[in-house]
Give the backbone structure.
Amino acid sequence: MSKYKIFYSKRFKKDLKKLSLADIELLSEILDRLANDETLELKYRDHPLKGGFLGHRDCHIKPDLVLIYQKCENDLILNALRISSHSELF
């Protein structure tokens, strides 16, 4: 059982419809790792965000496929907020 419960934003669900099956499978694997509080490999470039996204993190599922998420430590919730290209998100 995962340490964190995953919640998906409306926007995330909309973004998800644009992805290929292969991208969705890779994303699912990454979300499972994050929900189990595992450290991601360096190739995913997981890092905290600044500015308007302060308190959020992003990781690169593929070079131009970015997941924006937020972990709520107190409630053990992982909020999957967006998944899209870097240019579309920023």
